[in-house]
Predict the 3D structure of the following.
Amino acid sequence: SLDWRLDALLWCGLPPLLAIAVCFQAPVELLRSIPAAASKRSAQKSESSGMSGSEISGAIKLATCFLACGCGSYGLSYSAGKLSENLYTNSVLLNGADILGYVAVLGADVLGRKAFQSSSFFLAAVCLLFCAVLQPGWNLIACAMVGRICLNVCFTTIYVALATVFPESSQKNVLPLCQITARVGGILAPMSGTLPAAVSCPAFGSLCMLAVVATLTLPERIGEEA
């Protein structure tokens, strides 16, 4: 009887070779073309996954906006107990501000995404910075609510920016970066619950002001001037 190695080679190795010889007129040329095709495919994949300098710069700017929204919006929720003595009323009002923010974003078409987003970030920054001089009470709650409304507007428009500013080939790289920075903001947000509103709210406002600069310098589409 045949050795098992030779038997396995005949049964497993010979049929594929015969199939190649029958199906292709030039099997040698086919085998020679496989490495070249593989290297070409690898080069195309590397080229498509790479990001240009303008795309990287735009991704950092958009990630800054995600950080401001994540830290500011979630931070206000954790700071609800510092706005006034009634935690439950504060929470209800802040959640009501969320609804108003998602309704207000419907007006983005009037000014355009970039102008609407930068204006919302700026108004949020002004209101949250102004909280530094207010005592806990209705005035502080009102400023925090306006800031929360504007942050919810921006939380919607930044996702629109992700889809419109960047080409499809780079969106898969930009989205994880932006989501990570938003989660970093969410990690920092609980710490605001241990600070007075006069300290935490201005910190959120400073991030919003930084997001204003990032929004204004981010082009409408990558490759076009801001």
Observations:
- The chain has a mean pLDDT of 81.
